[in-house]
Amino acid sequence: MAELLKKLQEEMKTAMKSGDKEKLSTIRMLISEIKKVQIDQKKELSDEEIIAVIQRYAKQRKESIKQYKEAGREDLAQKEEKELEIVQQFLPQPLTEEEIEKIVEETIKELNASSMKDMGRVMKAVMEKVKGRAEGSVVSSIVKSKLS
User: Fold this and answer.
1) 3-state DSSP call for residue 39?
2) Any idea what DSSP says for residue 2?
3) Which residues contact 100 (CB under 8 A, 6 or more apart)?
4) How many contiguous H segments (helices) and E segments (strands) does the chain have?
5) How far apart are CA 148 and CA 139, in angstroms?
6) Is 63 exposed, middle or buried (0-12, 13-18, 19+ CB in 10 A)?
């Protein structure tokens, strides 16, 4: 069993014992998302694959928060924000923009990239290096600024 899944299950037990209902329901939801993907793929997931599932879940929470705020539903937006905070505890620390810029610059040198034609190659290589620690949109904007 993947370490991250074990950690989630331990946190779920802790939340049960402490009576933290929000944390408990959020972790249960994460575990069910992971199990659903395991059933679909007919295999145990690695920690990296579990991180990808958790990131998708976090992204959905962010989109929900945005939609709720646009609809003027602060109560629901706050509930989603609390859930997002809990989910982010299980994700690796995100990279700062400076760290991402450094990785992008190194990758451009490694690939001898010089124009926007190389953007696809650079993006693919950078996303491999930052796995789970940076959003694609942020990486994309940095790559564009460095290649143009």
Assistant:
1) helix
2) -
3) 126, 130, 134, 138, 139, 142
4) 7, 0
5) 14
6) exposed
Give pLDDT, residue 113: 83
User: How far is the C-alpha of 118 from the C-alpha of 129, rounded, in Å?
Assistant: 17
The pTM of this model reads 0.74
Beta strands in 1-148 (DSSP E): none
| Lookup: tokens for 138 | 């942020």
Question: How many angstroms separate the CA atoms of 105 and 116, rounded?
Answer: 14
Nearest CA-CA partner of 103 in 128, 121, 78 = 128
Give the whole-angstrom CA distance, residue 60 versus residue 26.
Answer: 13
- By the 8 A CB rule, do 146 and 104 touch? yes
pLDDT at 137: 86
Tell me how long the chain is: 148
106 CA to centre of own chain: 23
Token pair for 99:
């760290």
**Averaged over 16-25, what is the pLDDT?**
94
Q: Hey, what are 142's tokens?
A: 């940095």
SS3 137: helix
